Amino acid sequence: TRFYSKKIFDGIKIKDKEVHEDYAKNKDKYIKEPGGVKVEGVKFSSRDKALLFFDKVKGKIKSFATIAKSEKDGKFKDFGHVSKGAQMLGAAPEALVDAALKIKSLPGVDIVKDEKDVWIIAVSDKKDPVHHDLADIKDQVKMQLQYGKFKEVYEKHVDDLKKQFTVDVDESHFEEKAAPAGDKKEEMLKGIFGEKGHQHKTDDKTKRL
Predict the structure, then answer these.
(1) pTM for the complete prediction?
(2) Which of 96, 49, 39, 48 is nearest to 72 (CA)?
(3) How far apart are CA 139 and CA 147, in angstroms?
(4) Residue 82, Cα to own-chain centre: how many angstroms?
(5) Given this model, what pLDDT does residue 206 score?
(6) Contact, 22 vs 141, CB < 8 A?
(7) Per-residue b/e over 38-59, b at no fewer than 16 CB within 10 Å?
(8) Strands (DSSP E) along the chain, which ranges?
(9) 67-122 pLDDT, tens per residue?
């Protein structure tokens, strides 16, 4: 089966045109650097404390990190550049990422509610994503397309084989046939009277005690 599968896989040919079309259509799959926007934030346990801090940093976004680090009621964190779908474990909460990407005028400050916490975030330095050059990943793209076609081609081959070679299994061959009643009776009599139909005689020597 493995040899047969490999033979089918090796027979699938991907044209350069298909590679170029897939790269152009799915360019976001081939991102080298995600880009996004730079996000710094301060987490507060209540909205009132968050609003007081918001008033402090309003119009002072360049000094946001300095002011935030000295804030006793909140916890500062620099998330670096964030983008949708490129978050790692322990990175910015999804609510912060969504809010940061919605800010149209940068730099900007916003208030974000995330479950029980309230954040004040400063958003700046937007970067466009950097994609891999097709020349560097052409072989990988071609391999992905080849794998994508393999399942379809393999299933077609199997269906064709089923149509060409039909195998019928006679289940009756494996069934235990019941012996006729007459045969059972005859075997029982043989066990009692012996092969010639006479009852077994006990040895005379044995009878004389």
Answers:
(1) 0.53
(2) 49
(3) 12
(4) 23
(5) 40
(6) yes
(7) bbbbbbbeeeebbeebbeebee
(8) 31-33, 36-44, 75-82, 108-114, 117-127, 130-131
(9) 999 999 999 999 988 887 655 545 788 899 999 999 988 999 999 999 889 999 99
- The model's pLDDT over 137-186, given as tens digits with 9 standing for 90+, comes to 999 999 999 988 888 877 777 777 777 776 454 555 445 555 455 555 55
**Own/partner pairs for 96-102, CB < 8 Å, 24+ apart?**
96/39, 96/41, 96/121, 97/39, 100/37, 100/39, 101/36, 101/37
Q: Rounded to whole angstroms, what are the CA distances from 12 to 45, 97, 134, 156, 158? A: 59, 42, 21, 13, 16
Is residue 200 within 8 Å of residue 194, measured between CB atoms?
A: yes
Name which of 28, 22, 23, 27 is nearest 83 in CA terms.
28
Q: If you search the block for the tokens 């092969």, which residue do you land on?
A: 195
pLDDT confidence of residue 203: 47
pLDDT of residue 41: 96
pLDDT value, residue 176: 52
Q: Do residues 50 and 99 lie in contact, with contact meaning Cβ atoms separated by under 8 Å?
A: no
Q: Residue written as tokens 């149209």?
A: 104
Q: What does the alpha-carbon distance between residue 77 and residue 133 come to, in Å, rounded to a whole number?
A: 34
Residues 141 and 93 sit within 8 Å (Cβ to Cβ):
no
CB contact at 8 A, 106 and 126? yes
